[in-house]
Amino acid sequence: MQPIRILFSSISGNTRGFIQKLSTYANDQQAINPSAPLIEAVEISDLTNFTDETTPFFVCVPTYLSGGNGIDNGVKELMTNTLGEYITYNRNAQLVQGIIGSGNRNFNEQYVLTARRYAHATNTAVVADYELRGTSQDVERIYSILTKLA
Fold it and tell me: Is the pTM here over 0.85, yes or no?
């Protein structure tokens, strides 16, 4: 089975930490069942050279916003702009299989708002979400979702 490809952005390290846990979990699953897919994760940052993606991928994005509530009085994306630009580079958006969002539930309507905005921009769906660095239950749940959708 092909690995599950995930493009992600990590500002504070929470998303990177979650992706590392997800990758470790996938490795453990493959040790039990050789047909279980691995995770191929690529961090997109300001240093990333834009390229044309050739295989389907998921996007994992944290929520960093400024101002507004994102519903009726505006919002400004912060920090994840490079990932958004990479996804919309040439035809990359056509290969997005779904969005995984992270955030903090304390921010109510803004929880995973960046993921919802990315899903809208790529005409896909938010397929999973988790809070902050995610729990081991989040890792298992999201891996299961991704293996069914990949």
Answer: yes
